[in-house]
Amino acid sequence: QVQLVESGGGSVQAGGSLRLSCVASGYTFSRNWMGWFRQYPGKEREVVAVIYTGGDSTYYADSVKGRFTISQDNAKNSVYLQMNSLKPEDSAMYYCAADPRKPLERYNPNYYNLWGRGTQVSVAS
Predict the structure, then answer these.
(1) CA separation for the pair 39, 25 (Å, rounded)
(2) How many CB atoms lie within 10 A of CB 76?
(3) Backbone angles phi, psi at 73, to 5 degrees
(4) What is the 8-class DSSP label of residue 77?
(5) Tens digit of pLDDT for each residue in 48-84?
(6) Which residues pair with 33 in a beta bridge?
(7) How far is CA 98 from CA 31, 86, 87, 90, in A?
(8) Which residues, 6+ apart, have CB-to-CB distance to 28 below 8 Å?
């Protein structure tokens, strides 16, 4: 059974840190694109960070550059999102995704085949 499971969300004060984890099972983790996306209530899901597990290529949304770091551990079938200097506007449901149908659309959540159920991040001002 193919699935992604996120964890690590929680409630923190502005300026604090969280580390999100995504564990994949029943899926070929290596040499694939994986991403972190977030969704605000009533809004469309948006890209936060993307990584290519076969070459350590990464991408970050402008809003999180310098604060968030995406990383991988292929042996553990896991991808992580280290979130530092958190701001209230980072509060959202965060989702792990994998296997975009079109690699050129790897920043577009509509093209991902696999999704986790999400983990909530809340940042108080």
Answers:
(1) 24
(2) 12
(3) -140, 95
(4) T
(5) 999 998 887 999 999 999 999 999 998 899 999 999 9
(6) 52
(7) 11, 25, 26, 22
(8) none
Structure-block tokens of residue 63? 């809003």
Does position 1 have pLDDT exceeding 90, yes or no? Answer: no
Q: Are strands 10-13 and 119-124 parallel, antiparallel or unpaired?
A: parallel
Q: Cα(90)–Cα(102) distance, rounded to whole angstroms?
A: 27
CA 51, CA 113: separation in Å to the nearest integer?
16
Give per-residue pLDDT as tens, 75-108: 899 999 999 999 999 999 999 999 888 888 999 9
How far apart CA 123 and CA 52 sit, in angstroms, is 28
Q: Which of 37, 58, 57 is nearest to 47 (CA)?
A: 37
d(CA 51, CA 33): 6
Q: What is the DSSP letter of 12?
A: E
Tell me what the pLDDT averaged over the chain comes to. Answer: 94
H or E stretch at 33: strand 33-39
| Of the candidates 79, 98, 83, 97, the residue with the CA atom closest to the CA atom of residue 22 | 79
